[in-house]
Amino acid sequence: MQPYIFPYLGYFQLIDAVDTFVFYDDVHFIKRGWINRNKILVNGAEFLFSIPVVKASQNKLINEIEVNITPKWLQQFYATLTQNYKNAPYFEDVFQLIKKVFSKEYSSISDLAIESVVQISNYLELPTRFEISSERYGASIGMDKADRLISICKKKGSDTYINPSGGKELYYKDYFESKGISLSFIENDLVPYTQFSGDFVQGLSIIDVLMFNSNEATRRLIDNYQFN
Q1: How far apart are CA 17 and CA 167, in angstroms?
Q2: Which pLDDT tens digit goes with each residue over 185-203?
Q3: Whether 23 contacts 132, CB under 8 Å
Q4: What is d(CA 72, CA 219) in angstroms, rounded to the nearest whole number?
C-alpha cells in the first residue's frame, strides 16, 4: 500500500489484518490523493490539511517527492490541532505523539508518511511487521501491477495477499490463484464513535480517532472488518 500521512482507520484495519505490510514507496506519486493530505475535525466539520511538498508530480515516485515543512507551517498545524481538539479526552497524549513524528527531519514525503504510520501502530501495539518496497523489492519495479504483487509475495514466502476492497476493479482472484497466491479483499466497517456534541463525521484521519478513543477502544474499532 502507498504510504499515507496519518491515514484513516481503514488503513490500520489493513495493517491489523496482515502479518507483513509493505509500504509501496517506489510507485508514482498521486496528486490530490492521501499521500500528503488527510482530514481532521475543524469547527465540527471535516478539514483537509496538506503536508507541503516540493514540485509534486505524478511523473515522480513517492520516495522522490521532497517535503518542505517550515517552522511557520508546523506552528500553524499545531495551533489548528490545539484549537480544535484541546477538549478531546486524549488530546495531550496524541498531540505529543504527533509532535514526536514531526521531531525528525525527512528527505521525502514517503519517509514522513511511513513514520506517521509506524509511530501510530507502535502506539496501538499492533504487531505487524513493516517493510519498504524500494529497500527489499526494487527488482520487481516495471512489472505489471498484479505480477509485481505476486512477485513480492513469493519473494517474501507468503501464500496470501490481502488488498483493500477497491482493488476488486484491478485484481482478479483467479489470476492470483493461477500463480499460487490466494487473494482476499478487506471490507472495512467504520463504526461511529463519539466526537464532540455534533453529528459524527466519518472517514477522518486516525488523529481524530485517537483524540476521542483510548488505545483499547481504538483497537476495538480497528477489529471491525471482514474478508471476501
Answers
A1: 16
A2: 999 999 999 999 889 999 9
A3: yes
A4: 34
- Cα 35 vs. chain centroid, distance in angstroms? 8
Which helix H or strand E contains 155, and what residues bound it? helix 145-156
HSE at residue 198, side-chain half, CA atoms within 13 A, is 8
What are the pLDDT digits (tens) for 101-134? Answer: 999 999 999 999 999 999 999 999 999 999 999 9
- Model confidence pTM above 0.85: yes
Gap between the Cα atoms of 110 and 40, Å rounded? 20
DSSP, res 189:
-
CA distance 58 to 34: 13
Distance from chain centroid for Cα 34: 8
Q: Look up residue 93 and give its three cell numbers.
A: 497524549
Start-to-end Cα distance in the chain? 18
Tens of pLDDT, residue by residue over 19-78, are 999 999 999 999 989 999 999 999 999 999 999 999 999 999 999 999 999 999 999 999
